[in-house]
Design brief:
By secondary structure, this protein is an all-alpha fold. It has 27 helices and two strands. The longest helix is centred in the middle third of the chain and has 33 residues. It has a two-stranded parallel ribbon. The protein has two domains: about 210 residues, MetI-like fold, CATH 1.10.3720; about 270 residues, MetI-like fold, CATH 1.10.3720.10.
């Protein structure tokens, strides 16, 4: 073999089809993220200076205040519920273990509609009081949950599930040794909770709160409904109202820096902290404490209250409006909305799972540190609000169209990617790639490399090993990932609003359009269908995420 041939073979081993595929997939995901960072160096319009002198500080202050309020409330609700169902036995505890996660089915913007509809003047609360006590001026006695307070409540009861699920998992696997340690050194049950149990669950709690923070900062539906000016609404208005893509990108950059700052603070806060899990031999299963009397009543009442407020309340409110105003239900094109929603779920799930499979297998067979670093960077898309990714994608396509495509004599390709199903699915792909990639990666960690080597010895090619061994082995992981992606896409609002084709509606966009026009009763039916579909998928996933 000549030196030239040898070098060619070595190059092929380093840069093969799997490497190239994984590299290109990660690059596609990374492009919108890089576009956001590059926006800082762009020249902005005159409106930017006006914004700087007027609204920007309001955007930042409202975003921070909203974030703090939501984090505090989700921490209290999520940790308390997780502690009660993990350490105690009381009537209904097995029901609440899975029922509390149904809050995931309620998007914050739908909760906002329910909250407003119930407590507004002459709303549902007024009707209930009137039917019970007769005519009267009840509006003055009914509390109003609007503005910032309404947004904090809506987002918190929609997102506390992140804290609940992760904290419950941590509590569930805590060793009885830790609890007995507290008793041996004379700690009361309350002191053991704050000194031992809670600190040991800190990584899980912090992870849950981090997810809540990202979702809060990316929220658009509820804050816009309540008329709160945040960085997210500023980005949307800059693009939709002022047609200023550069400004939208600049605001996106500020929000992205905000999010990265939260990650840095979180990492610094736990830099010196260490948490140890007992080895299998030293692990002792935790025993639950049976509650009786008023303590049992308190635990049951608290969990029931959270379940009612987070799930039953919005469902019953939407159901009430649908029954009272059946015309809106009759006029709703349910089949079309369902097919549109499921089309996005199907296309996005197939694309995400397929490319995540290829990317992970490429990393597995090449073991390239460069590729691994690019993949790690690309999965950060989930931490970036959907509205930012949508604007960044439009920015990149516009730049690519003006600077590359037109040089080939082609007039434009914008219509292919902007305002199309293809563009919408691509942005979904960037946004939720981390769900698919991390899910498949965790599955791959369970497959020993010796299985691959045995397959090669038996004459299997890399492709045949991938299709005949890896895919069947990871089918349960794929099912779970597909369901999680479906739940996210069903509820997703800002990306769909910005990227959807003309006259293409889903349950989420239909509900938002009606609500933005103050037609809450019309928003009830599509909201109810959205909740029903999301709940169905969540109940399927509960068997995976709530294993005892």
């Amino acid at each position: 073999m000549s030196t030239k041939q040898y070098k060619g073979n070595m190059l092929y081993k380093k840069i093969n089809i799997w490497y190239l595929s994984s590299f290109l997939i990660s690059l596609i995901v990374a492009i919108p993220i890089v576009t956001v960072f590059s926006s800082f160096f762009e020249t902005t319009s005159n409106y930017t200076s006006i914004l700087k002198d007027t609204f920007i500080y309001e955007y930042i202050f409202n975003s921070i205040f909203l974030l703090i309020g939501v984090l505090v409330l989700t921490f209290i609700i999520g940790v308390t519920c997780a502690y009660l169902v993990s350490f105690y036995s009381f009537p209904g505890v097995n029901f609440f273990k899975w029922a509390l996660i149904l809050s995931f089915a309620i998007p914050a913007y739908i909760y906002a509609y329910s909250l407003t509809a119930f407590f507004e003047n002459y709303g549902t609360a007024f009707s209930i009081l009137k039917n019970i006590f007769g005519e009267g001026n009840y509006n003055s006695n009914i509390p109003k949950f609007d503005g910032m307070l309404g947004a904090i409540i809506s987002i918190s009861f929609s997102l506390f599930g992140y804290v609940y699920v992760l904290t419950r998992a941590s509590f569930h696997y805590q060793s009885q040794n830790l609890i007995e340690l507290g008793k041996n050194i004379g700690f009361s049950r309350q002191k053991s909770f704050f000194k031992i149990i809670l600190p040991s669950a800190r990584p899980a709690i912090v992870t849950g709160l981090s997810l809540v923070a990202m979702e809060t900062l990316s929220d658009f539906g509820s804050v816009s409904f309540f008329g709160i000016s945040t960085l997210t609404t500023g980005i949307y208005n800059a693009w939709i109202s002022f047609d200023d893509l550069t400004l939208a990108n600049r605001l996106s950059f500020f929000l992205l820096i905000f999010i990265l700052g939260l990650f840095i603070l979180e990492n610094l806060s736990r830099k010196k902290a260490q948490y140890h899990t007992p080895t299998k031999g030293g692990f002792k299963s935790k025993t639950t404490i049976s509650l009786t009397g008023y303590k049992s009543f308190f635990a049951f009442s608290f969990c029931l209250m959270v379940f009612f407020i987070s799930f039953l309340f919005p469902v019953l409110q939407m159901l009430y409006w649908t029954i009272i105003f059946p015309k809106h239900f009759i006029d709703l094109n349910v089949i079309e909305l369902f097919l549109n929603t499921m089309l996005l779920v199907f296309l996005s799930s197939c694309l995400l799972i397929s490319l995540a499979f290829i990317s992970n297998y490429g990393n597995r067979v090449t073991r390239s540190k460069i590729l691994e670093a690019l993949t790690s960077f690309s999965i950060s898309g989930y931490a970036i609000p959907g509205i930012i990714l949508a604007v960044a994608f439009i920015t990149f396509i516009s730049w690519f169209d003006n600077n590359i495509i037109k040089s080939f004599g082609i007039e434009t390709i914008k219509s292919v990617f902007i305002g199309s199903i293809l563009g919408l699915v691509i942005v979904y792909f960037v946004r939720f790639y981390s769900l698919a990639s991390n899910g498949i990666k965790s599955g791959y960690l369970k497959i020993n490399y010796s299985i691959d080597e045995s397959a090669y010895l038996l004459g299997y090619s890399k492709f045949k090993t991938f299709t005949n061994i890896h895919i069947p082995y990871l089918k349960n992981s794929v099912l779970l990932i597909g369901i999680l992606i479906a739940i996210e896409i069903i509820k997703e609002l800002p990306i769909t609003l910005i990227m959807r084709p003309f006259n293409f509606e889903t349950f989420a966009t239909t509900a938002y359009v009606f609500a933005s026009q103050d037609l809450l009763e019309a928003a009830a039916a599509p909201s109810l269908f959205l909740i029903a579909i999301a709940s169905f998928f969540i109940l399927i996933t509960s068997r995976y995420i709530l294993k005892d």
